[in-house]
Write a structure and sequence with these properties.
Blueprint: H1 2-15, E1 20-26, E2 29-36, E3 45-54, E4 58-70, E5 73-79, E6 86-93, E7 99-105, H2 108-111, E8 119-123
Antiparallel strand pairs: 1-2, 1-8, 2-3, 3-4, 4-5, 5-6, 6-7, 7-8
C-alpha cells in the first residue's frame, strides 16, 4: 500500500512540474521554455526563455535565470537598455500547470514596439 501511495505522489508531482515548453498567442506567436537548473523544490533555479514574433513586423527573445515567487509563479527580471530599466516577465501557472499566463513590463528593448511577451500559452 505504501508503494502505491509513493507512486501516486510521484505521478502527481510530475504532472505539476513547472518545467516545460508552452506555446500560444498574444500580440503574435509566443513560445516559453522553462528548464529546472537544480532539484531543490523550495528554491529551485529555472532558466526561462520567451520568444515572440509577428511575421514581417517584429521578433523578440529574452532569457535569464530566476527562482519561484510562490508555488505557481515565476518572475524573470533582466536589465534592459537603460541602466536603471528592468524588463520583468511574470509567468503564472493554472492549477494543473497545463497553461500559463505571461505578463511583461518594460520589455520593448527586447522585442520592439509592435510585439509583446504577454499572453496565454498551453503546455506542449
Amino acid at each position: 500500500m505504501a508503494a502505491i501511495g509513493a507512486l501516486l505522489t510521484s505521478s502527481a508531482s510530475a504532472v505539476l512540474r513547472l518545467e516545460g515548453r508552452f506555446q500560444g498567442r498574444g500580440d503574435g506567436r509566443l513560445e516559453l521554455q522553462v528548464l529546472a537548473l537544480d532539484r531543490d523544490d523550495e528554491n529551485s533555479a529555472y532558466l526561462v526563455i520567451v520568444d515572440t514574433a509577428i511575421p514581417n513586423q517584429c521578433i523578440g527573445k529574452i532569457r535569464g535565470t530566476d527562482r519561484k515567487l510562490d508555488a505557481s509563479t515565476l518572475r524573470l527580471r533582466v536589465k534592459a537598455g537603460e541602466p536603471n530599466e528592468v524588463c520583468e516577465i511574470t509567468v503564472r501557472y493554472n492549477g494543473d500547470r497545463s497553461r500559463v499566463q505571461v505578463t511583461s513590463e518594460n520589455c520593448d528593448h527586447f522585442h520592439g514596439p509592435s510585439c509583446d511577451f504577454g499572453g496565454t500559452l498551453k503546455r506542449r
